[in-house]
Amino acid sequence: MRSTGSKSDRETIVGRVNEAKSVKYAALTEDLGCLLGSETDSIAVLSNAASLIHERMGFFWTGFYRVGRDSFGTPELVLGPFQGPPACMRIAYGKGVCGTAWAKRKTQIVPDVEQFPGHIACSSRSRSEIVVPLFDVGSGEVFAVLDIDSERLATFDETDAFWLERICRFLAEKCK
User: Fold this and answer.
1) For residue range 90-149, what is the model confidence (pLDDT) as tens digits?
2) In Å, what is the CA distance from 144 to each residue of 51, 136, 157, 159, 162?
3) Checking phi first, is residue 74 left (phi over 0); if not, alpha (psi -120 to 50) or beta?
4) Fewer Cβ neighbours under 10 Å: the N or C end of the chain?
5) Predicted structure pTM score
6) Dist CA 113 CA 165 (whole Å)
7) Measured on CA atoms in the order 94, 97, 101, 106, is the torsion positive or negative?
8) SS3 for 60?
9) CA gap 119, 110 in Å, rounded
C-alpha cells in the first residue's frame, strides 16, 4: 500500500505550487505594466490585460464584465473584453458568481461551480471560477469584474486572489 504522505509533506507540495504560481503572477504583473505603458483607454487596457492573463496563465476563459445598464436603466454587468469561447452577455446584480462579486464587493473563489447557488453556466466546460471586482479610484464603486474560469475543479486559491486583486488595482488605475 502506498503512503499518501504526511500533512507536512502535502503542505510542502502546496507551498511549492503556490510559490511557482506567485512567480508566474509576478512576471505577468511586470509584463502588464510594460505592455500597457501609458495607455488609459479602458477598452484597450482591459482587452490586452484579458489577453495576456489568458495566454500566460493558461485559463479556460478570461475576461471582464463592465457595469452598464439595460434598456430600462437598471444596472447590470455587460460582457467586455475577453479571451475564450462565447460567453453570457449580461448578468444581473447579485446573480451568479460575477453578480455576487459585484454585490458583495469582494473576490469570489468557487472551487466547484456546480456547488455555487445560482451559478450561471455560460459554458458546461467551466468547473471552477474566480471573480475579482475592479473599483473606480475616484468613487470607490465597482466598475467592472475580472472573471476567470477553469476546466478543472479547485483551480483557484488565495494566491490567485492576492495577485489578481493586485492586478485589478493596477488596471483600475490605468482606466481612471
Assistant:
1) 999 999 999 999 999 999 999 999 999 989 988 889 999 999 999 999 999 999 999 999
2) 16, 9, 21, 21, 18
3) beta
4) N
5) 0.91
6) 20
7) positive
8) coil
9) 10
Domains of the chain, start order? 7-174 (3.30.450.40)
* Size of the chain, expressed as the number of residues it contains: 176
Q: Grid coordinates standing for 77?
A: 454587468
Which cell numbers hold the place of 46? Answer: 482591459
Instruction: Record the cell numbers describing residue 121, joined without a space.
Output: 453556466
Strand 75-83 relative to strand 90-92: parallel, antiparallel, unpaired?
A: antiparallel
> How far, in Å, CA of 88 to CA of 3, rounded?
45
Q: Residue 72 corresponds to which cell in the numbers above?
A: 430600462
Three cell numbers written together for 117:
447557488
